[in-house]
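Q: A reviewer asked whether we had any structural model of the full assembly, not just the individual parts. We don't, so I'm hoping you can provide one. Inputs are below.
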Amino acid sequence: MSPTLRICHLYPDLLNLYGDRGNIMVLTNRARWRGIEVTVTEAPLGQRIAPDGADLFFIGGGEDRQQRIAAGDLAAMKRRPLEEAVEDGAVVLAVCGGYQLVGRYYRPAEGDDLPGIGLLDLWTEHPGPRARRLIGNLVIQPDGEAPPLVGFENHGGRTRLGPGARPLGRVISGFGNNGEDGWEGAVSKRVYGTYLHGPLLPKNPAFADRLIREALARRYPGFELPRLPDMLEEQARAAILARIGGTPR
Amino acid sequence: MSRTAERANASTEETTTLDPRLSAAIALGKATAGLSRFLRQGGGTTMPGRVARWVEPRLLERLSGRLQGGSVVIAGTNGKTTTAHLLAHIMQVLGHRPVHNRAGANLAAGIASALVEHADIRGRPQGDLGIFEVDEATVPRVMPSLMPRVAVFTNLFRDQLDRYGEIDYIAGLWRSAGTVLTRDVIYVANADDPLVFDAVRGLPGRLVTFGVEDERHALPALEHTAEARYCYRCGTPYEYAVTYFGHMGQYRCPTCGVRRPAPDLVARNLMFAGPDGSEMTLATAGDGGVRVRTVLPGLYNVYNILAATAAALQLGASLPRAGEALATFAPAFGRAERVSIEGRELQMLLVKNPAGFNEVLRTILATGPLPTVLIAINDQIADGRDVSWLWDVDVEMLAGHVGHVIVTGLRAEDMAVRLRYAGISQEAIEVEHAYDRALRRALDRTAGGRLFVLPTYTAMLALRSVLERWGAVRGFWE
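A: Here is a predicted structure for the entire assembly that you could use as a starting point for your response.
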């Protein structure tokens, strides 16, 4: 029997600032091109989720106002099931505003702190409305043999990691978590948080495949993904790396 | 004393005596314009203003204050340039001589350049009405200097988040810009855009609105690109009775009661002839309505026509006269402009954000499948450095309806990847970085038909300069 990849898209109509839905398109297509069935469920405001209802949860970015609306709902309706899903091996991908909300808290430019759901040991503080936003092309080098991740970042908040999370990669070009310590993103178990959008997955097909593999491993351990012809993706990576001054791998 | 009389008085007083600083500013600005044209550095649409303002920092207020008929500013994400061109055309037909930043340079320096170009050395304007399109974020910087009679707000879409930050920020800028204006300013605002309406309602001055009323052209559901799903004031999801594109439509908030106002000017009975143009009835409460025909295609241009006509009515035009003028309008460069080349027709439709791109795709596909489309994506500052918006465009519309897509521009590969995930086979996607070769390839594949070219802003300028070199079009500043 062919496996099924079950994706849950959190707040698709609220946190969708930078073409975030492109990540869902990439996961869906790359799985289907390999004959894997895919289901995508949406979890908007007010909807409960089941820990075993999906194997890959995605949460995108939003403006401060949308983030504030989402934060309360995330804590009230989604926190527990997400914690259980993660304990059970599910994958969570959180980008930009969503990344901030899966940490411990986000202190916006103005107003009260937003509570995070603590899937990642990190916190984010915005230095205030007059502070410079961290905007531009971003390239990072993850640990090990993985190729660099490329994308774009645009955030006001500065994120710091606690001991419970390790960074997703080292900044080659751009700002990353806070523009100071040289680290970008965070990982713990199968929870991935990052400021990389662009969106993240279209130009990082190897990372997309890693997420698909890990999500499938929860219910189909050892399932192997055949390679796909990614000429256009490789060209797009090469083009941006050439401009940034990195080398494609 | 009326505002106009005050202006007229001020201008006769000011122009009787020569002001050396102002004259020097104008002279240097004009010299810069001549030099930059000679050196072919664009059309000299911003440098002259920058130089002139360096000599006379109060240049904007001094020159615009001498315009007998005052000024109109036009702001919004989509359609500024076309709206300004439409309004200038209507007013010209009615006998005015607009001073207009027609090349679309819409920062303070661009507006100053237009004023310098249309002034003599003593600072006397060669025109009677300022029509200035203004960059969204520049609105608060130029409003106090221009003190417009009419301020037009077309729409607010997410666009260039890398440059502006967030959309709420722009709405806030407009609101605060409005507070510096006097009570006799007239706001012309899009009733169908909740973000625009929310930004301008309650400001001092008079509010005039426009909107579409033709449910036959409504979309089945709110689009992915809709920005305004949640009420700005209370966070409740808006209820839309009708949506046209993006978040344009008939909305209401069930909690706090904010709702689309009844527009002062409406467009009804819309008829679209794909990329060839459209027809509509424009009507006000006091007028039975006039039938208007235009070469501007698509629903998004109906909004531009509404915005320009609503402003013209406030400047003294009658609806029938405005309607007649609209029929003779030719589009601004790159905005549905048609070019004849080697027995083929080329039509360039600017794309700059998801909502606009979707509208363009709907328009070009209205008449059936296309053999070839050329898409040109750049990521320079004027285009937005972040190309993630391509993933908010419903590129899927092209799948199965286009034979071959040629992509060019600095971000050609990003567009190619987007096309792949929209269901277009890799063999049907061709990346060609050089603008001239991309145009050549696309024209070769368009035998006898029409080639649609969909560029971002700076890609449009680059493609246009290729066409100019080939002798197919004139310089954009002409």
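A: Points you may want to mention in the reply: Residues 4-244 of chain A form a domain with the Rossmann fold fold (CATH 3.40.50.880). Chain A touches chain B through 36 residues (CB under 8 Å).
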